[in-house]
Design goal:
Blueprint: E1 3-8, H1 13-16, H2 21-28, E2 29-30, E3 39-44, E4 50-54, E5 61-62, E6 78-84, E7 89-93, E8 96-100, E9 105-108, E10 115-119, E11 128-134, E12 142-144, E13 150-154, E14 163-169, E15 180-186, E16 197-199, E17 203-210, E18 218-224, E19 227-233, E20 237-241, E21 248-251, E22 256-263, E23 272-274
Parallel strand pairs: 1-3
Antiparallel strand pairs: 2-20, 3-4, 4-11, 5-10, 6-9, 6-11, 7-8, 7-10, 9-12, 13-14, 14-15, 15-22, 16-23, 17-20, 17-22, 18-19, 18-21
């Protein structure tokens, strides 16, 4: 079995107020992603959301169930979103092949039984970034390429947040139960990924940072709006944001990140925004 999994329980804002740097990192940083020939999962108790990766090189990797799910197959009661941040690859779902290039996405619905991840070139393997959430209904599997995304052009260079938000696995593009995913690309000279900062008490969110150059980093801000904390993040690492936490970040240069969330509704704009003057 080429699967590794760890589990983290949910914690509240009162507990986090007393955390030091290492405790924050242990609780919210995801720094074991993109291990070659491994499917890695972090099972969180925020919306039962799972974040993971699959990087096949020597042979295809099979999506296997884990004991946390108590299910015959991984997708017996779940849906899965995938975005490829590496070389080209194939995902085979119940015998159907889906070809994913760089920054292409795939939605796999509930009750998909057999899933295989394959790289086209072992020297430049696919890096499949994975998000999964519980699902109550089976929706069709669907490939969403970068060209299929709904693109929002937001921000400005003057405020250091000019960016393209590629909405990929959201309800205006593909049917899902509760999972939503997309990727944001910051323009050169811009470093803020989300400003004004926001939170949405109705769902959690995970930010996966990539295209962060070597020797550069992103400072991810979290916590209640008046009790903010920060975590320094490097390339191909993620941060889990509880529903009560803001999520925003600033890099030492421009970068990209994937956002994934699940929870109460599928309204992308359902968020509570906090202007810079309100943050503490």
């Amino acid at each position: 079995m080429n699967t590794q999994i760890e589990s983290r329980y949910a914690v509240g804002p009162n507990e986090v107020k007393g955390y030091d740097t290492q405790q924050l990192r242990d609780e919210f940083l995801v720094d074991k992603l993109m291990q070659e020939n491994i499917i890695y999962w972090l099972y969180t108790h925020y919306e039962r959301f799972m974040v993971g990766s699959a990087v096949p090189t020597r042979a295809p990797l099979r999506l296997e169930t884990v004991d946390n799910l108590k299910a015959a197959n991984f997708l017996t009661g779940r849906e899965l979103g995938v975005i490829n941040v590496g070389g080209s690859g194939t995902i085979t779902a119940d015998g159907e092949d889906f070809q994913l290039g760089y920054k292409d996405a795939l939605y796999l619905g509930k009750d998909t039984n057999e899933v295989l991840f394959t790289s086209h070139d072992s020297g430049n393997p696919a890096k499949f970034y994975l998000n999964s959430a519980p699902a109550h209904h089976k929706y069709p599997n669907k490939l969403v390429t970068r060209n299929d995304a709904n693109v929002l052009h937001l921000g400005a260079l003057e405020t250091s947040n000019e960016r393209d938000i590629n909405q990929m696995l959201i309800n205006t593009v593909v049917q899902t139960c509760q999972l939503q995913m997309g990727l944001t690309e910051l323009k050169p000279g811009s470093v803020w990924n989300t400003m004004p900062a926001h939170q949405h008490d109705r769902r959690n969110e995970v930010y996966f940072y990539f295209e962060v150059p070597e020797q550069q980093a992103v400072c991810h801000f979290m916590g209640e709006p008046t009790e903010t904390r920060h975590i320094w993040v490097h390339n191909e690492q993620a941060v889990v944001s509880p529903p009560w936490s803001i999520h925003s970040g600033a890099g030492t240069q421009n970068y990209s990140f994937i956002w994934g969330m699940a929870g109460e509704n599928l309204d992308y704009d359902d968020m509570d925004k906090y202007q810079p003057g309100e943050l503490r």
